[in-house]
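Possible regression after last week's pipeline update?

I re-ran a chain I had predicted before the update to compare outputs. Posting the input and the new output here so someone can diff against the archived version. Not blocking, just want to make sure nothing changed silently.
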Amino acid sequence: MGYGTHRSPFLMLMFYNKSPILFDKNPRETSNYKSTKLYTYLDYNMKKVISLAIVALTATIAQAQTADSLALQEVVVTGTRNAVDVRHLPMTVTVINREALTKEHQTSILPTVMQQVPGLFVTSRSMIGYGVSTGAAGGISLRGVSGGTGQLMVLIDGHPQYQGIYGHPLSDSYQTMMADRVEVLRGPASVLYGSNAMGGVINIVTRRPAYSQGTSTQANIAVGSYGTVQVEASNQVRSGKFSSTVAAQYGRTDNHRPNMGFEQYGGFLKLGYDINENWSASLSGNVTHWNASNPGATTQLKLENDQYITRGEVSIALTNNYGWTSGALSAYSNFGRHKINDGYNAEGGKPQTDLFRSKDAVSGISLYQSAQLFAGNRTTVGVDYQHLFGRAYYTNRETDEEVTTPQRLMQSCNSRANGIAAYVDFRQDLTDWLTIDAGLRYDHHSIAGGEWIPQTGIVVRPMATGEVKAMVSKGFRRANPKEMFLYKSANEDLKPERLWNYELSWRHRLNGGFTYGANLFYIKADNLIQTINMQNVNTGEIENWGIELEAKYPVCSCFNINANASYLHMKEKIVAAPEATGYLGVDYRQDKWLATLGVQYVNNLYTEVGANETKENFCLVNASVTYAATKALSIWARGENLLAQSYEINLGYPMPRATFMGGVSVNF
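New output (post-update):
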């Protein structure tokens, strides 16, 4: 992909902080590579295997001459500051476009992302709703690295989205209504995104109207098992230089167990204005509120374990694009308000007199500029500033006054911290078949101090339709306020967690649209924060290696197959990280009909580790069918776990058997 080409009148690069978005009057659909193969066993010393493989493959193809075909390019924005053909990036990025996100009428992005990305797993406990705190689901793991401990980051248009005290993602916030596509970078992304991007990032790129002038409106209404109701509506406008997207959603369910109700409502707004050919401005925001009840594990039922959560995000950006250089100045804030009743045991317990409350915000300013310094080059420099705030406290349930007993004060905190970072990323096409990339970040935190984060990679294209990638990268995570200041285990002297990732991958696109790929990776992490003898200390380690396979094949114009599989070897077993997963999806389109069938296999999912180690194996069959009754009206139905399998993902929380949803969609 040439970096010096002038922008055509049909293309515009809009940058929303760390996530530029490529718009085209005739955009290509992005590709999701998957594989029909199951996992294979690898040598125990993956680090040596990958190093030897890099040398061997590079030597074998070093003399290959190839044309740089653009026929099947896939443009991504995650892992880079400017929209780039993924074939020129050494990291692995999977793209799930809006068609894939919406074809099964899921209101959350996470079920679809879990199906489409090998090695990524999301915990669940019910039909809809993940919840937070005790008994919550929605934990995200990638290659055995957990978002529940803040080691995996979710972004919205490149802005960090996590709870400011506990550091974990809030899975009920990530709604399909706002997503144009989702890009998942497997492996560390700390050079560009800093702390918490230790094991990878999930970047939600938000919706924006197409360049055609006019208005479009969509609405979806559905009902299903256990009193489930879901309503979603959106409107998009483009008028001259102005554009807008507004969306709202509501959902509720009783779920399949008593005292497990869930209710959620939220909205999304995005405004854009093209100042001139080279400059644009945008303003976006979203807010969601949910009420969730936790019934407790089947071995210890709970009453009144209720959660009332509000999360929101707002950002503003000024972007520029002159073809040879582009950049953005943006500001953002991700904030939340939590109120939680910890409940009591159904047998012999007493109702709580106090409620846990928290307020938090992760706010920041980002400035970067990317430029072509010479032929085949793209160099990006940037500066990030971040302010973190978190306050946790208890209030009396009856009077709503703050409780200041010694015990509650020990369980409270009021934390503020600042961080500033500078980074540079250098990417160079040395020939038409060879690209190198190197990045470096220095990240300074007002409490934890400074950290250097390097990465380097190489891409070799022995043919126009295939590439070999090798990557070595570092990720890190600073201790969060909960670990430093909250509860008896608090320790203000904690050091950052550190992770090194070594990765080798191959991607190939064949005639007829068949694509496949394979990734080998080795992860070594240390300094992990664990609680030992009632004290948080840097003592834990991770040593994981594995393989990921993916493939996609459009059999004909109406029939598509996609598949992926992963195998993960963990030296130390981790809860909610399965050793093996597989997914096979089939789509069939004919006239007014769209039918989908998905088979998901999970093997050796650890629900408890240690002396009482517990594992789950299960195979789920899901299906959906949509009928376009008219140009504006569609009728659809979806069934999940159609074989009515009995299984658990969270220990003590049995999943529902077969469930069904059905509804109508209107577009005008």
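Follow-up from reviewer: compared with the archived run. The chain is about 5% helix and 55% strand. Marking as no regression found.
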